[in-house]
Amino acid sequence: MLDQYLPPIPDDAVPTGERGDLVPRLVATLIDVVPSIVISIAFMVMSIIPFLGCILLPLNLLVQLGYWFFFVPYCVSKNGASIGKKMQKLRVVPLGEPAGRIGMGPAIIRQFGNLFALNLIMLAIKGEERISMSDMLAKTEVIKVDR
Mean pLDDT over all residues of the chain? Predict the structure, then answer.
């Protein structure tokens, strides 16, 4: 259903054997935030209409939760990457299985791990390992792919 809207990185993309670096992962995160910002702006503009503000605020919250805790994990579990990760040629895989896919459960756990602001700081501190807090929680790794 959603595959037509995702950037085309084929399933046969070959892992390069390296984990994703800090900068491409940060850029991927920023790309993933863009739809959330657009959704919020749309709801803010619509809330100008009288009596809709009290309805749109909770609806915005539900849509945001759906985006972050259903859509993004769905993309990661089905396609191996969120939109941003696909654009940065990165893939989320089970720890030690470069050709594997993670399920929806670990993908949601990764998203909860991403809620912590220290996630990218942990990635930067772990330097050589290039593993984030969300990777540790879900027992995953982010690897580079050739396309």
Answer: 83
